[in-house]
């Protein structure tokens, strides 16, 4: 349930499970979980009611602040002292942007959808939509945190939904209860379901423009040290400080020509040399005997490793593109956590790689039509998540913007450097002219004195 202490414009009801903001106000709608979160347990709320008279929407996250002793600000993004909040499509820490584009955009949620937040046992923060994880939003989260919800803007009422009942309500995976038992349990949930419109979108319907059936996933067969999560959309290497290989994952389905398969770097460690390797293979993941590392494959496999391209384990292009995947580090790197690596087999049978949406050119030609994507979580790279189209397009805009800003800054610097050189040249010429004139005058005066 929600903590009894809440924002000035919020009224709690339904045994403190429902929070309603005054319709004539848009802020001061903060509510907190009554107790600190338990690891691996999702805190979820359902969007009961939206109004169109305001801009902005729900904000949700976690905080180290104890609501009992807190002086409540007007919004969640004003919280400090260890607070992580998803606002719109951005993740903020203590009011500052930590991740500019997250796969979930709260400005697009609709009535009836369920939004959740969870701290994992590994200290990571994940957000959920209708019971499905959207990936890691932050790490190094303190052990004791409360859930925080800002009933803000267009969202005027929310209700806490128990995770186990949510899974049955939405037909989630792993439910061992029969349909009749699920119906009975849902009926007994003490929530006001009258505000949920008929035909509300479920987890099997479109989320961010893509249905679950359309979303790309990793195949369930993987290397021996891989753990899949987020319904097969995230892959993580186990014991990353003890093991550096045996973590190959492949796409569940063959690639579609001219369609980008892209992953985001979620976690890195600095212990090992070498890093992620990505590519394509003709080997069916349902049948392949996974090697320790994919560059050991001697047939039907093209991989990008470091800054080179290997075909069946042999180098075919030693200087490919502008990036070196072996230089992935946590700090001061060409690539870092949050960056994206993609691959595309084009209809002309050429293979291209993409870094943060930027095409690195042709890596190989005459690639067979039936190929699967391969990701080797090797060395420094520990965890990745498949990226959807919406996030990719938005990230591309950011990449282009940053590129333009960088070019403008460089052009400005070059211009200033040119101006300084011109002034320096003029000053030198003037100085030499003045010195020459002075020397001539001095010489003449001496001649006159001698006479």
Task: Give structural attributes.
single chain; 451 residues; alpha+beta; Jelly Rolls; 2 domains; seven-stranded antiparallel sheet; 3 helices; 26 strands; 18% helix
Rg to the nearest angstrom? 29 Å
Percent in helix:
10-25%
The whole-number mean of residue pLDDT values reads 79
Q: Write the CATH architecture name of the largest domain.
A: Sandwich
Strand order of the largest sheet: 1-2-13-4-9-10-11
Shape: globular
Largest sheet: 7 strands, antiparallel
Q: Note the gap between the termini.
A: 109 Å
- Strands, count: 26
Strand content: 25-35%
Order of helices and strands: EEEEEEEEEEEEEHHEEEEEEEEEEEEEH
What fold name goes in the CATH topology slot of the largest domain?
A: Jelly Rolls
CATH level 1 name of the largest domain? Mainly Beta
Number of helices: 3
Structural class designation: alpha+beta
Structural description of this entry:
This protein has 451 residues and is of the alpha+beta class. It has three helices and 26 strands. It has helices spanning 163-169, 179-188, 389-450; strands spanning 10-13, 18-21, 30-32, 43-50, 59-63, 83-87, 90-93, 96-99, 114-119, 125-129, 132-138, 146-150, 155-160, 226-229, 234-237, 248-250, 261-268, 277-281, 301-305, 308-311, 314-317, 340-345, 351-355, 358-364, 372-376, 381-386.
